[in-house]
């Protein structure tokens, strides 16, 4: 196609035209030319190139009281997709996102995790079936992200620490080699943070706390996730909350994981607690005294964690994850009151916010980086095809 042989300047202009249409759906040619300072003939050339590549499409004509009505253009949201997967001990959630990061397909399956090639072969077959059922062709898939409970190598190919899934050292090769597009592992808390960033584009500095089956977290500075020199930034779960306290799965005592995870709230050692969370919060809503007491103790420990983190980094604190999605406004107010009571300097705790991505945040966040890369680095993606 034409754009495979364009000069650097034409590539830049082509990218600008595509980005403008992406940000301004249903825009006419004249608006594009005026806003970008590009001649109408040049805009027409780029529009034709993008139309031929099925990256944009026409979407009718704009209303006009004089002359011929202008043709409007919009991005073909299904021209490329990304797939995200959340892997848990006994199930997996698969989602597909269009170029606007909207979920266009979702599937939850029962699949027992095992640190073996056989597991990833089964997962590969599951993803193949998902793609076939939804008629996704490989050349439209930007990549697959797998959100997992564990620390991941910088290249996203292996577990560097995987105590929860007994997967330390496990590599993704068996799965990734089955596809012709990128595949990578991503720490589940980072995935949830990515989904939050996508929902809140103006988010700059923040502490993200993932309250789920296990505790997790992430640190945002200037809108970028801080992973640290070896990928351990944001592992709030292994901060000492109670010296010589309960024994964590990591082998140490008193980690925040022991007090702020789903296991801590429910008093359960189950590998998959989602159904238990449904039952717990149904009982809590009905006024069950045991659930209310458990939740109060749990929120007190979460408040200690929030206050400690905010003392280190004075930014908004966003509460996300499976448990946080159940919180009512009253629950959030109670957290704020508990944090204010512990605060040394200020009783203003409006910095504690509820996450906006309430459902499948890990699976969605595992796919978001591929969408973000394509929409923000369009020229680079074109060069890969040259």
The total strand number stands at 15
Counted by DSSP, the helix tally is 13
What overall geometry do the principal axes of the alpha carbons give?
globular
- Give the structural class: alpha/beta
Task: Identify the strand order in the major beta sheet.
Answer: 6-5-4-7-10
Instruction: Classify the helix fraction into a percent range.
Output: 25-40%
Quote the distance from N terminus to C terminus: 10 Å
Average of pLDDT: 90
**CATH class label of the largest domain:** Alpha Beta
Largest sheet: 5 strands, mixed
Low-confidence regions = none
Organism: Dorea hominis
Keywords: Carbohydrate metabolism, Xylose metabolism
Family: Belongs to the ROK (NagC/XylR) family.
InterPro entries: ArsR-like_HTH, ATPase_NBD, ROK, WH-like_DNA-bd_sf, WH_DNA-bd_sf
Describe what you observe in this structure.
Helix content is 39%, strand content 19%. It is of the alpha/beta class and 386 residues long. It folds into three domains: 2-75, Winged helix-like DNA-binding domain superfamily/Winged helix DNA-binding domain (Arc Repressor Mutant, subunit A), CATH 1.10.10; 81-193 and 362-384, Nucleotidyltransferase, domain 5, CATH 3.30.420; 201-355, Nucleotidyltransferase, domain 5. The strands form four sheets. A five-stranded mixed beta sheet has the order 6-5-4-7-10. Strands 13-12-11-14-15 form a five-stranded mixed beta sheet, with helices on both faces. The termini are close together. The relative contact order is 0.12. The mean pLDDT is 90. This is ROK family transcriptional regulator.
């Amino acid at each position: 196609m034409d754009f495979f042989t364009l000069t650097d300047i034409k590539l830049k202009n082509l990218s600008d035209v595509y980005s403008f249409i992406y940000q301004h759906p249903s825009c006419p040619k004249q608006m594009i030319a005026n806003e970008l300072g590009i001649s109408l003939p040049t805009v027409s050339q780029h529009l034709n190139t993008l139309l031929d590549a099925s990256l944009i499409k026409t979407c009718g004509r704009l209303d006009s009281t004089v002359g011929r009505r202008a043709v409007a253009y919009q991005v073909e949201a299904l021209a490329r997709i990304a797939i995200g997967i959340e892997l848990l001990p006994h199930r997996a959630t698969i989602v597909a996102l269009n170029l606007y990061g909207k979920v266009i397909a979702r599937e939850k399956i029962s699949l027992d995790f095992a640190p073996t090639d056989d597991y990833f072969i089964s997962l590969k077959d599951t993803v193949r079936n998902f793609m076939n059922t939804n008629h996704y062709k490989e050349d439209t898939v930007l990549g697959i992200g797998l959100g997992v409970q564990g620390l991941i190598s910088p290249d996203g190919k292996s577990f560097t620490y995987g105590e929860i899934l007994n997967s330390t050292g496990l590599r993704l090769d068996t799965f990734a080699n089955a596809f012709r597009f990128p595949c990578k592992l991503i720490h589940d808390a980072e995935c949830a943070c990515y989904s939050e960033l996508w929902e809140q584009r103006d988010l700059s500095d923040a502490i993200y706390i993932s309250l789920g089956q296990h505790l997790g977290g992430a640190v945002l500075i200037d809108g970028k996730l801080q992973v640290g020199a070896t990928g351990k930034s944001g592992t709030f779960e292994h901060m000492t909350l109670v010296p010589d306290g309960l024994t964590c799965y990591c082998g140490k005592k008193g980690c925040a994981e022991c007090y702020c995870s789903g296991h801590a709230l429910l008093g359960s050692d189950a590998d998959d607690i989602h159904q238990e969370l449904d039952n717990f919060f149904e009982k809590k809503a009905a006024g069950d005294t045991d659930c209310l007491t458990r939740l109060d103790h749990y929120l007190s420990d979460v408040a200690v964690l929030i206050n400690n983190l905010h003392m280190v980094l004075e930014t908004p604190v966003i509460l996300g994850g499976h448990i946080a999605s159940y919180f009512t406004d009253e629950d959030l107010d109670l957290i704020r009151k508990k944090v204010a009571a512990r605060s040394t300097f200020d009783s203003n705790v409006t910095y504690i916010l509820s996450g906006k991505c309430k459902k499948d945040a890990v699976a969605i966040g595992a796919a978001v980086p591929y969408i973000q890369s394509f929409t923000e680095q369009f020229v680079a993606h074109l060069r890969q095809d040259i």
